[in-house]
């Protein structure tokens, strides 16, 4: 938002002053003024998109097909896709473990977990898994058909089924994710924060130099 205000309101005012003074503009100033002119002249194109895109996403999530595609795209995002997947699987393991240990039948556990994972891709996989388990297919075999379930869950489910301790093993999976997710997020934001800061410093520094260079040239000419 700050950068939008800078390029659409602040820089155009400086540009008018510099042009009225007939100062020779250095290359950085020309580049910044060109970027500002582009944003101002195309504001009726990109400004509505700032509103339209979030509204379209919100409306799209009301459609099952569009909601599925959006959640599928989220899982494919670089870096953040893995975290989103881990959060959904953590909800699945946590809720399944609690329900199963409480004596809820496995089919009922799967049905309830579908509404709790918060991701349409995993929700559909659990729905299809429920149908297969009702036909007598082992849970670990059903989950192995879907790439959204990593080897950790598949192995723990298989061990839990073999030892008749499925509730306990799913609790262990949930505990693992509850420890791993904060570490993963800390690593990601620990890398991104200095990168974002560096980009902002470079960009603002370039803008500042482009504004002050012609002013310094003007002051030097008066002397």
Structure explained in plain terms:
This protein is mainly α and 223 residues long. It has 10 helices and no strands. It has helices at residues 2-20, 27-41, 43-60, 64-75, 80-101, 106-114, 120-134, 139-143, 151-163, 166-222. α9 runs antiparallel to α10. The radius of gyration is 27 Å and the shape is elongated. The mean pLDDT is 84.
Strand content: under 5%
Count of alpha/pi helices: 10
| Spans of at least 5 consecutive residues with low confidence | none
Mass-distribution shape: elongated
Fraction of residues in H or I helices = over 70%
Q: How confident overall, as mean pLDDT?
A: 84
- Strand segment tally: 0
In this structure, how is the largest beta sheet organized?
A: none
Give the class from helix and strand content and strand pairing.
Answer: mainly alpha
List the secondary-structure elements in sequence, H or E.
HHHHHHHHHH
Distance between the termini: 39 Å
Radius of gyration: 27 Å
Features:
223 residues; mainly alpha
């Amino acid at each position: 938002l700050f950068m939008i205000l800078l390029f659409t309101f602040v820089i155009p005012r400086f540009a008018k002053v510099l042009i009225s003074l007939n100062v020779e503009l250095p290359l950085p100033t020309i580049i910044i003024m060109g970027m500002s002119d582009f944003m101002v002249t195309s504001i009726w194109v990109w400004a509505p998109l700032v509103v339209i895109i979030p509204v379209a996403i919100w409306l799209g999530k009301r459609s099952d097909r569009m909601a599925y595609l959006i959640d599928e795209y989220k899982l494919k995002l670089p870096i953040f896709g893995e975290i989103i997947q881990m959060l959904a699987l953590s909800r699945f393991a946590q809720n399944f473990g609690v329900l199963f240990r409480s004596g809820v039948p496995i089919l009922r556990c799967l049905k309830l977990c579908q509404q709790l994972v918060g991701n349409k891709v995993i929700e559909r996989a659990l729905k299809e898994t429920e149908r297969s388990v009702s036909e007598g297919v082992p849970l670990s075999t059903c989950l192995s058909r879907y790439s959204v379930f990593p080897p950790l869950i598949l192995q723990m489910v298989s061990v839990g089924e073999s030892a008749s301790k499925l509730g306990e093993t799913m609790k262990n999976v949930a505990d693992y994710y509850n420890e791993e997710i904060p570490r993963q997020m800390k690593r990601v934001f620990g890398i991104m924060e200095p990168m974002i800061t560096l980009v902002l410093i470079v960009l603002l520094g370039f803008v500042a130099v482009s504004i002050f260079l012609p002013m310094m040239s003007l002051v030097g000419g008066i002397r």
